[in-house]
Amino acid sequence: MLNYSEKEINLILKNILNTEAFDIKAVGNHELKRHLVYHIFTQEEELIFKLYYKTNRRCREIAALNLLADSNVNCPRIVKAGILPTGEEWLLTTYIHGQMFDKLRNTIPYENQIKIFAAMGEELGKIHSFKTFNFFGAWDENGNSISSITDYAVGFIKNREADISYVLKQNLPHKALLNKAIEIIRNNYHLVENVTTAHLCHNDFDARNVLVKNTDSEWILSGVIDFEQSCPGYKDNDLLSLYEKHFLYDKALEEAFLTGYSKYCSIDKYFYDTLNYNLLCSAVGICSWAYEQAPDYYKEGIKLIKLLIE
């Protein structure tokens, strides 16, 4: 948790920008008490300043954005990075004009939404097709593996067991439902043994991390943001949150997205064969942390588990 006032953030940025001629606006989900994110207005440009509450987040973002600097993915570019005297890591990037698609979606005509989902598919396809790796999981800001995991199943099981441990440590409601989900997850670890190739993954690809802007009376995708979870992984996992929130209930959006995605990447039959299992794993992962920090998100996780099990 970070406890910086706006006055303190201004003093920090004064030293980083080497000027007093700027204004700031909070734009992050500060109510979650995680990272602090600010939109910076200087006389010459607009920037985004992110102060990380947790280690092993900035390094992922730097590694991914440095890699994608040579791509045509609509993502931020790194301007500067550093560490405060108090030890917190920070990152300064270019600003992408636009508004969060997730917040505007209900105000955008449905046919326009379909076009945006097709564009989202294209952007994710560009990310996934840009590079493959000989390892899975966490990396440093230079793009080198931290955990040295070359077997996807090993990393997958480790992460699932961590989620399960967090669930079991808490006095959560829906215990019987969660225990049933955990039993299914543990009894089917063999389903992930077919994943052998690591691709660059966003790992939080969702409408809340997609920006849109209005051009000629139509909303278009302007950028993809928040690469702090990004690392080499199983590329099709990036689609899970889209299925959780959208595609399970709207096949037209799914079709539009996959049409855009297929311009750069294909989806294996294996993905559909294991989709429900991976969605269940994702839902348990949500429930492992969201009960107190994001209660509505916890409810979404429980709703998804019920849908998949019952």
Structure description:
This protein has 310 residues and is of the alpha+beta class. The chain folds into 2 domains: 6-94, 2-Layer Sandwich (Phosphorylase Kinase, domain 1); 99-309, Aminoglycoside 3'-phosphotransferase, Chain: A, domain 2. It is 44% helix and 17% strand. It has 11 helices and 11 strands. It has helices at 6-17, 58-68, 101-104, 110-130, 152-169, 175-187, 240-247, 251-261, 269-273, 275-293, 295-309, and strands at residues 22-26, 36-42, 46-51, 78-83, 89-94, 99-100, 132-133, 198-201, 210-215, 218-224, 231-233. The strands form 3 sheets. A 5-stranded antiparallel sheet has the order 1-2-3-5-4, covered by helices on one side. Strands 6-9-10 form a 3-stranded antiparallel sheet. The protein has a 3-stranded antiparallel sheet with strand order 7-8-11. Strand 4 and strand 5 (89-94) form a beta hairpin.
How many separate structural domains? Answer: 2
Q: Profile the largest sheet.
A: 5 strands, antiparallel
Multimeric status of the protein: single chain
**Whole-number mean pLDDT:** 94
Query: CATH top level of the largest domain?
Result: Alpha Beta
Radius of gyration: 20 Å
Return the CATH architecture of the largest domain. Alpha-Beta Complex
The number of helical runs is 11
Cα separation of the termini? 37 Å
> Total strand count, please?
11
Structural class assignment = alpha+beta
Give the SSE string. Answer: HEEEHEEEHHEHHEEEEHHHHH
Query: Level of helix content?
Result: 40-55%
Q: Going by CATH, what is the homologous superfamily of the largest domain?
A: Aminoglycoside phosphotransferase (APH), C-terminal lobe
Strand numbers in spatial order across the main sheet: 1-2-3-5-4
Low-confidence stretches: none
Shape: globular
Approximately how much beta-strand content do the residues carry? 15-25%
